[in-house]
Amino acid sequence: MSDYWIVGARIVDGTGKDPVHGPAIHVEGDRIAAVGSPPSGAQTLDARGLTITPGLIDAHVHLGLSSDINPSLRRELSVAELAADMFDNCGRTLDAGFTTVRDTGGIDAGLARAVSSGKVRGPRILQCGPVQCQTGGHGHFAAEWEPTADWYDHDIPGLRSISLLSDGPEQMRKNVRETFRRGADFLKLCVTGGVMSTHDKIGDTQFTTEEIAVAVTEANARGSYVTVHAHNNAGIRNAVHAGVACVEHGSEIDEETAGLMAAKGVALVPTLATMHALLEDPTQAGLPAGITDRVGTVLQGQVDGLLASRAAGVKVGLGSDLIGANQRGRGRELSLRSGIESPMLALQAATRINAEILRISDKVGSIEVGKLADLTAWASDPLHNPEVFGEPDKVALVIQGGRVVKDGR
Q1: How far is CA 142 from CA 68, 70, 170, 237, in A?
Q2: Do 111 and 66 contact (CB within 8 A), yes or no?
Q3: Contact, 206 vs 192, CB < 8 A?
Q4: Maximum Cα–Cα distance for the chain, whole Å?
Q5: Residue 212 in contact with residue 176, Cβ under 8 Å?
Q6: Which of 15, 35, 61, 257 is 20–30 Å from 209 (CA)?
Q7: Domain covering 3-54+366-407 in this structure, CATH number
């Protein structure tokens, strides 16, 4: 069992308090046992010159989309290649300082279990299994000529399942029950069009309030929740009125919608890094260059929606939403948020606030006695230079559940 003290580091505990230098962190087993001074003769881990934060949390990942998108959906890649890309992405995510992620669609519970068992290096994974979408809606990525009945042939049981199609409340009920049967931790619905969709527009609303409410009822019955992919205000309001807990993206949120979300206790997870990546070169994700036509307005809309939500008192988390083979810039989300708000607020969004949104704040999200020893140590101070957040090579040390899983000191 682990029993050591981390000494010499500057500590940023994730609660918003000022950084402190001097106290040591006692790791015993998988927990933080104390913050203070080590006794004489204690085993120590030398972290002099490093800045330690809680392990980062990415609240919007797609580990199941770790290969070039279009080839992966057209069976141009073998299952072995798809799995290898996912496993590699898991390891890179951990090495970038992310000890927990919320997968918002695409993986099967099998990947999460492979990681939790130790067979694959990676972050702790909370996952929704396949997303819920309507026929022809965001999440239904079949080619136009492909019969809808063939869509589920793309599933790889135990590894990847992109989406389940629901048209009507009873089909929704059946599909979300099936999703929980497969081991989902929460549900995700697509209630508007999306950037990488081929059959819809950003301004489209998808699912009726009644359909969304069925999913909420089923999630609540299991002590879980629903989050929604949503860009436009009409779709967001439908989802909020139906009782969802969280909105992803939110690229059209205005003062009125933000006020409604705040009143209903609905959180927001903006996703800026993927928009920047798609603007720079969508072909790196295996998508056509023309997709950038949708990206510009969505990116600025997310920034505006973030600020409106903050002003209204909405709980605002952080997610990268990276897709495709190049997901190495996951920490860039914190760098981008630092330029909009501040490095300290960005760090809180990626630690304490994300833990609250994921409903695991009793376990992770801050450096406090009794919580899991999930810690990330940086060779340079990211609060002073937030570009460091996006540079995995600057992550000197990663500790997950008390175990040192990366040591680049």
Answers
A1: 15, 10, 23, 28
A2: no
A3: yes
A4: 71
A5: no
A6: 61
A7: 2.30.40.10
Contact by Cβ (8 Å): 50, 10? yes
Locate 142 and state its tokens. Answer: 């079949």
Output helix, strand, coil percentages for the chain, rounded to the nearest 5. Answer: 40, 20, 40
Do 3-54+366-407 and 56-330 have matching folds?
no
Cβ burial of 228 (10 Å; 0-12, 13-18, 19+) is: buried
For residues 336 and 386, what is the distance between their CA atoms, to the nearest angstrom?
Answer: 8
Domain ranges for the chain, please list them: 3-54+366-407, 56-330
Bridging pattern class, strands 395-400 and 375-378:
antiparallel
Ramachandran angles phi, psi of 173, nearest 5°: -60, -45
How far is the CA of 358 from the CAs of 16, 128, 164, 320, 373, in angstroms? 19, 12, 22, 15, 18
Q: What is the C-alpha to C-alpha distance for residues 298 and 249, in angstroms, rounded to an integer?
A: 9
Integer Cα distance of 109 and 122 in angstroms: 14
Category of 61 on φ-ψ map: left (φ > 0), alpha (ψ -120 to 50) or beta: beta
Indicate the pLDDT class of residue 142, thresholds 50, 70 and 90. confident
Tens-place pLDDT, residues 109-133? 999 999 999 999 999 999 999 999 9
| β 226-230/246-249 pair status | parallel
The tens digit of pLDDT for each residue in 180-239 reads: 999 999 999 999 998 877 778 889 999 999 999 999 999 999 999 999 999 999 999 999
Q: Which two tokens stand for residue 280?
A: 């720079």
Identify whether the C-beta of residue 294 lies closer than 8 Å to the C-beta of residue 62: no
Reduced to 3 states (helix: H, G, I; strand: E, B; else coil), residue 57 is strand
Q: Please give the Cα distance from 202 to 194 (Å, whole number).
A: 5
Amino acid present at 330:
R
Residue 74, exposed/middle/buried by CB under 10 A (0-12, 13-18, 19+)?
Answer: middle
Architecture per CATH, 56-330: Alpha-Beta Barrel (3.20)
Angstrom CA distances, 103 to 136, 142, 173, 254, 263, stand at 22, 21, 21, 27, 27
Predicted model pTM: 0.96
Tokens 């050591």, residue? 4
Per DSSP bridges, beta strands 395-400 and 403-407 are antiparallel
Q: What gap in Å lies between CA 12 and CA 22, rounded to an integer?
A: 12
